[in-house]
Amino acid sequence: MNRRIATVMVHTSPLDQPGIGDAGGMNIYVAESAERMAAMGVDVDIFTRRTNEDVDDVVEIAKGVRVRQINMGPVHGVTKEQLPALIPALSAELAQMLAKDSYDLIHSHYWISGKIAMPAASRLSIPLVHTMHTMARVKNLNLAEGETPEPMIRVQGESQVVAAANALIANTDAEAASLVSLYDACPDNVSVVSPGVDLYSFTAGAGRAVAREAVNLPKDAHVLAFVGRIQPHKGPEVLIRAVAEMLMHSPHLRSKLIVLIMGGASGAGTGEVDRLKDLASWLGISDVVRFENPVPRNELPQWYRAADLVCVPSYSESFGLVALEAQACGTPVVATAVGGLRTAIADGISGVLVDGHDPKAWSSVIARLLNEPQRRVLLSMGAIEHASHFGWDATARGTLDIYDRVATSSIQANKSIS
Predict the structure, then answer these.
(1) Which of 133, 140, 206, 306 is most solvent-facing, going by the fewest CB within 10 Å?
(2) Residue 233 DSSP one-character state
(3) pTM confidence score
(4) CA 243: distance to chain centroid?
């Protein structure tokens, strides 16, 4: 009989379009790793809160992987910030749903899901594995200018989840260290499993010229791309200000420059896209900055291939899947030297890491790379090689190893009690 895993990700669904609202790298992570685990003989049910009345209660997204809707609370109008008020009701409903089947283990993603899974795991005596993805204390140490700090209820909730989980999975060594130093996690309970990239879809393909024709971009343009949710913490403003700085010093780049900001508004920042458009206008660079809506996953590789550089100016990242996807497509990445981006990018080999968020520093790095096409070719080769080490199959295998260890420990503990 196949092992059965209950995955809990409540504040967003693997059925949602990444790059809009709260849907991002975590959605991809959960769906991709679940599909790979299912291919290895493990059944995965992903429990998420219903936010769409048109979706069936159970949706099979791959053989052995089902998305199950938790019907609790209003279907529309509940923001991620309002979800903590629903934690007790969601937890009770989840426990009822889990009790109707037999699950070997619960794996929760993000702190709200951890808080919802904790009581259910305790009541049903099912081991709990948790992945943070982002942490309040880390974010609050690296806030963008004017960004609202994460609330104390989240800090407390994360601390409770860390204490309750049988195992914690970190994306990188840096995240593992943060769990221990900032949340007093027991080092023996923390394991590192790197996220992956779909190496079958995100490839160099037929090259940049073909990609640009496919997405209707000029073949001779200098293309910079930002891909992700449009929120201050992801740093799109840093790129816009850096471009303005660059054009002030290197006006000759302007005629061929295209800056793509691809993504949708996220969380409470519904006016962030308009604010950035106004900023580009005020800086006098509206002619080179284009705002694009997120595209389906199967179209995204062409946009990565079409770019000369993909920029990831985040203030913190548990990993940075955009950086990995871009590199797999052969596009070098310029990113902030924070968190998981230090692992996702091989500095000087697959891209360039920038210390801090000073637009002048970013401008200098980007201008130098645009003026050195031979260096970009070398970085492109290094990007493909570096990304090749991060397939989702390896993520799934690493996760399953932790599941096996936790399940075995749980069985032994139950035997000793009885």
Answers:
(1) 206
(2) G
(3) 0.91
(4) 25
